Input
Amino acid sequence: MATGAKVKGKRFEVDPALMKKVKQQYITEEEIDKIVDMRREYLDWMLDNFSQKLIKPPRTSKTET
Output
């Protein structure tokens, strides 16, 4: 995991102190859930309309030991 990142619920969150160029804005959990749902809906639409096949992930990762 990247330095300064933490897991909050099921999401990764970056330490606000690392956000020097762009001020972090407050977002409610409901807004975050809506954004996540909209991204999933978009990806599903893209898969339905543009993919000919779904590529399976590898069984093992190179980062696993």
Remarks:
- The longest strand covers residues 5-8.
- The CA atoms of residues 31 and 37 lie 10 Å apart.
- The chain has a mean pLDDT of 80.
- The first helix runs from residue 29 to 50.
